[in-house]
Design goal:
2 domains; mainly alpha; about 140 residues; 4 helices; flat
Length: about 140
């Protein structure tokens, strides 16, 4: 994994790719700001952050980010992205349904649920990797 300066024997950092990632992060922050502004305007500008949704976003990024980064050798496999995308859609649908109905959702609930999901994601991907290599 490249975090900063390249290690000996590794490729030089791709500045265009890094710039694109920074641009995407900045765009994500801007979109969050706009969505929060719309939320504040609709709720009378009370200034309260919808913490359960921020927690959901952070938990989703961690739960899906770590497996994807850790499985870099499989990035060229289409099944990895299809599987990860389907699991992400399922995760999002379930959490949106739950968080819309449960208004008092402590952020600590995301920790055990995220851990279980992380193990589940790795298990599904491991089984699919084993099947694809045995063909």
């Amino acid at each position: 994994m490249e975090w900063g300066l390249p290690m000996s024997g590794s490729k030089r950092p791709n500045k265009v790719r890094d710039f694109g990632l920074y641009l995407l992060i900045a765009l994500g922050i801007a979109v969050f700001g706009v969505l929060y502004g719309v939320h504040a305007a609709r709720t009378g500008g009370n200034g309260q952050l919808p913490l359960r949704w921020i927690g959901f976003a952070a938990q989703t990024a961690l739960t899906f980010g770590y497996p994807v980064v850790g499985l870099r050798p499989l990035w060229r496999r289409r099944w990895l992205w299809v599987t990860t995308g389907l699991l992400l859609v399922l995760h999002t649908l379930i959490f949106v349904a739950v968080l819309q109905r449960v208004h008092d959702w402590p952020l600590i609930y995301f920790v055990p649920i995220g851990y279980v999901e992380y193990i589940g994601i790795l298990t599904v991907i491991d089984r699919l990797a084993y099947r694809s290599e045995s063909k």
